[in-house]
Specification:
Length: 298
């Protein structure tokens, strides 16, 4: 039995079969993989799923370390120590205690949200991988750590379909972004299913969400609490808040200002779209392709 603290998700993992398999192979061959992508694209969810997939390869466990509250390198060491149940030793830094503990271990460490403390995360991870030859690190970040030995895996949004090409449910049956949307909608409104009547409307919503899983979750939470479904303006701004601005290694992530009320997408999953207002501007682009069956039509 392998010890771990990985969170169990009752909702099944949707899509990403190729990425999941590739990442599993990569972490078996290298000591450090950084999953890089915009906020909400699914970096953490994918990394945790891959950790579950390969955890049997690590006798000393698979551990998720969340860095959202860390502010410096000491905070990172504290977060790792807490997960591993390590305590301070007089005359030694907590980081030294952690690194010494892991130096002879065969463990998988998932460092989540490294962009919050990018410089510190880079320094800590570099020391960890140098001193612990049998420890594998999966880092999630909006930017690469830019350290020796790092393999960068860029995670893109789920592909979406051109709504105008949709005729019925069969046109979207094999699309991961639509399947994810259906899963999240059914969790908020039991009994919701993609049908011939709503397939095109669902495809339109998914396209406006740009294939970003976090935004589908945001929709679900609003439905569950009885609120209006989230607008694309909120989706766009929320996604912008979660990603970096420049693509350079040490960019600063600034908080977004509060949103003002704006155009709302009045989406009722039981009746399709009753009123849709789409702002002109778009968020992070996802790949768009015509529906499979539409391509076969004359």
């Amino acid at each position: 039995m392998v010890h771990h603290n990985l969170p169990f998700h009752r909702a099944g993992f949707v899509g990403r079969a190729e990425e999941r398999a590739t990442l599993a192979k990569l972490i078996r061959r290298t000591g450090l993989v950084t999953v890089v992508g915009v906020g909400g694209v699914g970096k953490t969810r994918l990394s945790v799923q891959v950790a579950f997939d390969v955890m049997d390869d690590f006798n000393d466990g698979a551990w998720l370390v969340e860095l959202a509250s860390a502010t410096d390198r000491q905070g990172i060491a504290s977060a790792v120590a807490a997960v591993l149940h390590l305590t301070e030793v007089r005359g030694r830094s907590l980081e030294e205690v952690v690194l010494d503990h892991l130096s002879d271990k065969a463990a998988l460490i998932v460092l989540d949200n490294c962009e919050q403390v990018l410089e510190a995360a880079a320094g800590f991870t570099e020391q960890l991988t140098r001193r612990s030859p049998n420890v594998v690190v999966i880092a999630t970040s909006r930017e690469p750590l830019a350290i020796d030995g790092e393999v960068i895996w860029r995670l893109e949004p789920l592909p979406v379909i051109e709504p105008g090409a949709i005729v019925g449910a069969s046109d979207v049956a094999e699309e991961p972004a639509v399947a994810l949307f259906e899963q999240r909608a059914a969790m908020a409104r039991p009994g919701f299913r993609i049908s011939d009547d709503n397939a095109a409307d669902v495809a339109r919503i998914v396209q406006q969400l740009d294939g970003i899983p976090w935004l589908s979750s945001l929709q679900r939470r609003r439905w569950r609490t009885g609120g209006s479904p989230v607008s694309w303006k909120v989706c766009q701004t929320g996604s912008r808040c979660l990603r970096t601005g420049g693509g350079q290694r040490r960019s600063v992530i600034r908080p977004c200002r509060p949103l003002s009320s704006g155009a709302w997408t009045s989406w009722n999953p039981t009746n399709a779209c009753s009123s849709v207002v789409w702002p002109r501007s778009r968020g992070p682009a996802a790949s768009t392709r015509p529906a499979r069956s539409a391509a076969r039509r004359p």
